[in-house]
Amino acid sequence: MDKTEVISGSPYSQIAYETTQSPQWGDLKILSGTANPELANKVAAAIGIGLTEMEVTRFADGEINVKIKESMRGHDVFLVQPTCHPVNENLIELFIILDALRRASAARITAVVPYYAYARKEKKTQPREPISAKLMANIITLAGAHRIIALDLHTEAIEGFFDVPVDHLTAIKILAGHVKRLGLQNIVVVSPDVGGTRRARRLANILEAPLAIVDKRRPADDVMEVMHVVGDVEGQHAIVIDDMITTGMTVASVAKALLANGALSVRVLATHPVMVNGAIELLRSAPIEEIVVTDTIPLTEEQKKPPVTVLSVAPLIAEAIMRIHSNGSVSELFH
Ligand code: R5P
Question: What is the pTM of this model?
Fold first, then answer.
């Protein structure tokens, strides 16, 4: 893949990587699990290196085996593996590849987990429940990760679940850039729930737009009720921002409520297109002009068709990798 093809049009397109050798960490190596090889390839292409070859196979009973095809000894290794659907398969694969890298004496191992599963189970809401997001963090570290690159985690508190450094990137600039290119006048940024207010406020600041918040209730997994729209959306183009779309129920109901409250149109931005249980079909039948997501999770060609737009986070991840590899500051990628 051509490097310019990956980075053009991105706010992270000014990158020029002179060398992929660091005196401290050895050579830069990028590996991909099977969760999202397309994204990993784009990241490697943006940096200008090839992916390290690795075979991931299954034994007859379904157990996973991996074989890394070149020496990892003394190298600075980045493993790209979002823990998207099939979640448990991809998680176990992540743990096993990390273990293989640790046993292969890699100098430093960074788990690049653009989508972090179990993130919504980050606290107990009832007695005798697990905190699965913490458990996954424990196992990732135990398996061998020295650092983590994550992207738009469901809540920022998850960073603290890791006892190793976490570079928590955000795709907000990429999503905002898309909205700016549309050149819409009279926009209002909408958080689909109270928990997402901080994220929506950041977007509203970038777009210099007012903010509205939807007060929703989810009494059961498959039931969504919009209670109120807080803020003025009448006569405005609504830009709804969420971290992920799972079944699509949240944004479909929010879109209807916004139009009922006088919004002119509704567009949805979300970093992670989890898209399960017919989400795309539900969204296509909802009154939504455009659904803008990123490629943290792979979609089929059919799912990528309009009104879905997919923006790549590969240049952002590539830039973070190069800064980490050269001991540069990553903090400006967080804002
Ligand atoms: C929940 O708090 C998340 O931020 C999303 O709003 C939620 O995961 C979306 O789920 P669904 O698409 O199933 O409504």
Answer: 0.93
